[in-house]
Design goal:
heterodimer, A: 190 residues, alpha/beta, Pyruvate-ferredoxin Oxidoreductase, domain 3, 6-stranded mixed β-sheet, 19% strand, B: 421 residues, Rossmann fold, 3 domains, 7-stranded mixed β-sheet
């Protein structure tokens, strides 16, 4: 079973991100479970959401305590809380930022993870460019597909189109594809 | 059709497949998405021949459902927590009048202190109100139980509450097989009321009943629920034959064949418990699980048969009666009463107000039941430090203030202190 934890702030589509990843995994024939952390939902407050993916029925209902991957939608969270809690030693880390992870002061964390398992992607910037709004969730899922191969970009894009029909969906697909290509083409030393 | 879908949406689609004729809705977290989904289906015409009535309160919601049901319509509503309390008088009326309403309860704690998260206090507050109460373990089962619930309610002319864990199920997006309309139609025939208000044949429902007849009415209400003990498994079998999967029934067992210790629980926590049991089985512990689906009627006989050969029974429940104990644990004890040799019953109160129930905590308490069984209630993951501080404060200061606010202050203070302390 793969367990992915999303960290972001209210209004950034953190819950929707986990749901879209679950749909993408479902489209590939996997079992998947997405759920929010059920806090009081306020704009700007830290929000956590979860996604589990497995090739058999998922029975577990506890929050994800030891994630295989972390997707951080807002880099200001590193100062507010221990985002890395429970992250497995061979886990993945994906951060939405236009800086490098070293510039964010995450050098020590990155060094502990296997090569290529920690990446930065300017997801908000890509969303601004393609969607006209700084909502990073779709772009992050594209980048996640490139970094981990846990789901394919094609499934991510299908999940985005299912969640946002019409023009908004297409714009988000463009953001996800751009993020995918940015990571797939760039060296993993980000 | 297999879908990756939010639990609430899946339930809304299942309820629509049951062709309700009146839906009364008043929003309250965490059930709101269900009636929102149904409202949308009525508006778009996806759900035909159904009146969606927005009411002014939960009391209004169930009262309108009572009127609709008495007039011969298949009626549905949903609520949670304080909403259920606000409709309490109507809850008793629906069952006392024998009206086959189906209501979803998105299980949530009851205040004060106010809390929007999941536990089973709301269901337990109305467990003696004469409704049948069925608890879903997964969203698939929630879908399936709703379909069975209309059939069950209408065959016995008695209302059914379908209990689904708020947020944990209602807000989870997971794989659910949504049945075909043709199969649901074949399983659930149109509503044929046993009593109906009809201007062409006037009659009254809800007469004043004196001491000469009241006890008989109540006795017959109980009699219906004893009939349900037979009907619920029959419906589950028929459902399985038609839909190809097992859902509902009175209870289910998991790895109990040779178990010395059997856990009993209701609702979504059963999944986490199964994963914990697999882990303990790997270590050679003989442990199993009974998942109770039907809390009302309470299947005392089936439960006794499932538990009687165990040495220990650990009841994990998300509610308790203050000053008394866990309602489920007490009732499990009742099922084992008067048996010469019966397992010891140990009560675990867990997940109150939405506290996470994790595998490590469950594993610890299950192991403890073997080596150090306890009397009374064990509160899983209770913060003993905070409790002790508050008790100390209260013992020193007469005007010690509100408990909830004091606890929050203790927590803030301990969070500020360095972790080493």
């Amino acid at each position: 079973m793969l367990q992915i934890r999303f960290h972001g702030r209210g209004g950034q589509g953190v819950v929707t991100a986990a749901e879209m990843l679950a749909v993408a995994a479902f489209l590939e024939g996997e079992h998947a479970q997405a759920f929010p952390s059920f806090g009081s939902e306020r704009m700007g407050a830290p929000v956590v959401s979860f996604c589990r993916i497995d090739d058999r029925e998922i029975r577990l209902r506890e929050p994800i305590l030891e994630p295989d991957a972390l997707i951080v939608q807002d880099p200001t969270l590193f100062k507010a809380m221990d985002v890395f809690q429970g992250l497995k030693s061979d886990g993945y880390l994906l951060v939405n930022t236009n800086k490098t992870l070293a510039e964010l002061g995450l050098g020590a964390i990155v060094a502990k993870l296997p090569a290529g398992h920690a990446r930065a992607v300017p997801a908000s910037e890509l969303a601004l460019k393609h969607v006209n709004r700084p909502l990073p969730n779709a772009a992050l899922l594209g980048a996640f597909a490139a970094m981990t191969g846990i789901v394919h970009l094609k499934s991510v894009n299908a999940a985005i189109r299912e969640t946002f029909p019409g023009k908004v969906g297409e714009a988000n697909v463009a953001a996800a594809t751009a993020a995918y290509e940015a990571l797939a083409s760039a060296p993993a030393a980000a | 059709m297999l879908k990756q879908i939010e639990g609430s949406r899946a339930m809304a689609e299942a309820i629509a497949l049951c062709r309700p004729e009146v839906i009364c809705a008043y929003p309250i977290t965490p059930q709101t998405h269900i009636v929102e989904g149904l409202g949308e289906m009525v508006r778009t015409g996806e759900l035909q021949n159904c009146e969606f009535i927005n009411v002014e309160s939960e009391f209004g919601a169930l009262s309108v459902a009572i009127g609709a049901s008495a007039a011969g319509a298949r009626a549905y509503t949903a609520t949670a927590s304080q909403g259920l309390l606000f409709m309490a008088e109507a809850v008793y009326n629906a069952s006392g009048l024998g009206l086959p309403i189906v209501m979803t309860l998105g299980n949530r704690a009851i205040g004060a202190p106010i809390n929007i998260w999941n536990d089973h206090s709301d269901a337990m507050s109305m467990c003696d109100a004469g409704w049948m109460q069925l608890f879903a373990e997964t969203n698939q089962e929630a879908v399936d139980i709703h379909i069975q619930a209309f059939r069950l309610a209408e065959e016995l002319s008695m209302p059914v509450m379908v209990c689904v864990d708020g947020f944990i199920l209602t807000h989870a997006v997971e794989r659910v097989d949504i049945p075909d309309q043709a199969d649901v139609d074949a399983f659930l025939p149109p509503y044929e009321p046993v009593q109906v208000l009809d201007p062409r044949q006037p009659l009254s429902i809800g007469a004043m009943v004196g001491p000469d007849a009241f006890m008989e009415v109540r006795y017959l209400q109980h009699h219906k629920q004893t009939l349900a003990l037979g009907l619920i498994p029959d419906l589950a079998k028929e459902f399985e034959a038609r839909f190809g999967r097992s859902s509902g029934g009175l209870l289910r067992t998991y790895r109990t064949e040779d178990a010395d210790l059997i856990v009993v629980a209701m609702g979504s926590v059963n999944g986490t418990i199964k994963d914990t049991i697999d882990r303990l089985r790997d270590d050679g512990l003989r442990i199993g699980l009974v998942t109770l689906v039907s809390f009302r009627p309470f299947p005392a006989e089936a439960l006794r048969d499932a538990l009687i050969r165990a040495k220990h029974v650990v009841v994990v429940e998300k509610s308790f009666s203050v000053g008394m104990g866990g309602q489920l644990a007490n009732t499990v004890g009742l099922a084992l009463r008067n048996n010469r040799v019966a397992p010891q019953v140990h009560s675990v109160i867990a997940g109150l107000g939405g506290r996470s129930i994790t595998r490590p905590s469950l594993e610890r308490v299950f192991r403890q039941a073997w080596v150090q069984p306890w009397e009374g209630m064990h509160f899983l993951d209770l913060n003993q430090t905070v409790v002790a501080k508050e008790l100390q404060r209260v013992s020193k200061v007469r005007r010690s203030g509100p408990t909830a606010e004091n606890i929050l202050r203790h927590l803030r203070e301990s969070a500020r202190r360095p972790a080493a302390e």
